[in-house]
Predict the structure.
Amino acid sequence: MSEKLGTDSRCEQTGDEKQDTQEKEAVIPERAEEAKLKAKYPNLGQKPGGSDFLMKRLQKGQKYFDSGDYNMAKAKMKNKQLPSTGPDNNLVTGDHIPTPQDLPPRKSSLVTSKLAG
Amino acid sequence: MAGVAGGGGGGGGGNDFQWCFSQVKGAIDEDVAEADIISTVEFNYSGDLLATGDKGGRVVIFQREQENKSRPHSRGEYNVYSTFQSHEPEFDYLKSLEIEEKINKIRWLPQQNAAHFLLSTNDKTIKLWKISERDKRAEGYNLKDEDGRLRDPFRITALRVPILKPMDLMVEASPRRIFANAHTYHINSISVNSDHETYLSADDLRINLWHLEITDRSFNIVDIKPANMEELTEVITAAEFHPHHCNVFVYSSSKGTIRLCDMRSSALCDRHSKFFEEPEDPSSRSFFSEIISSISDVKFSHSGRYMMTRDYLSVKVWDLNMENRPVETYQVHEYLRSKLCSLYENDCIFDKFECCWNGSDSAIMTGSYNNFFRLFDRNTRRDITLEASRESSKPRAILKPRKVCTGGKRKKDEISVDSLDFNKKILHTAWHPTDNIIAVAATNNLYIFQDKIN
């Protein structure tokens, strides 16, 4: 495939070139990396840029703590412990009711920057 | 097309400069507090002031010392001028949203009087800060004592005129405007217009236009939020006003496209005037293609004729008159293409690198990993990789070019891809508007380098 400056990069493939490409798949580093990723995570969706992915990005900073839910759940469960989160405090599933302990404490940084020291 | 990877020929990037270490600011601790991580760096229009913002919501401004004949070695050093807490952590109770105090961007206003003004923003609120000097104090008031206590008016028998006496310089920062409640999503960019009266702020889905004097109103000029959020395919990643044409601005997307909009054509600029996108080679498309094409920064050249975009692996220069492809492409760290799987797993593939032009638009700079940063000379097509490290921090020491080796045989002084420290990222860099002085933020440290000839 010749690469001329200024031409459209879209390339048309003949039969010979198609086979070439298939052989190249393993050689193209991105494709090899993709294969590695899919081997590790077989359930990975096809398109990474989909709306789920972007929505997660848009929701950064969301902390779910509803005092009503929390107190009602506490009342229902009485003495039993509320299910606690796993290692990931920020992802909330349908079952889990966040507790005040789950929410990461708000950091305070009201000290002078070390750059000014 | 320029596509030189690594350090070709060891030549200096940027018109044969020799970059020397000048200063480093910040603590040397191994344990870096999150609040100390620098999140933005910006020179003002004259280059005499250099502002940094950090994750702790603090702004530190450095001022360049005047050249002093008796101390020739302090050749324009930057020292602390002012520091203040710009933003504090907040919690939006209605939406259960924690609002970080991290300063996303700082943009200076052109200087119009003795005071300096800058805009600083976190995810939700933009603030206009006034930084002013006070070097005189009035003494000899009639109605109060020297220590401020009110005097008994019936005891005053004579009048005097207060006189101004010099005092130690005091630099005060005060918030003059607070522009709040206009962004549902997270602000990624602010840009002051060339009219010096308005500015834009952009979040993931919307761009708003503000007047610097008016805080209770802003105009929405771009809205890409789909009616049904399930149809969301791309977000706005950066936006900037044209340096000379006050009606023109651009915004980049997570899909690697740039839209140029003209505010004269309609009030809501959802329809672009120009659409910049490099055609993709379908045979090389992969799972990672869209992620690495996401543009993390867009900057107009000083001339206003070009713009530069930064995506994960490269920097591209676009001619505003040509929408179908960039005129120049520079590979920043092409060797990472065969590491995309691990970079996706450790989230580094989502790192947002910035880029900048030098004053004459002849050179560009951007950061990389392992505290490396890259400079490209557009004229000679030469490039150089340098490192911001305490080891190369002797005063006026010339920086040695660095090289990453990808193949099997590692030469002496080269570093292999697998030894790179991906926690040492240089995301924020700035170039002095006229001189060859660069500021590089390496996590919690700010490095300043100067050209030897300077």
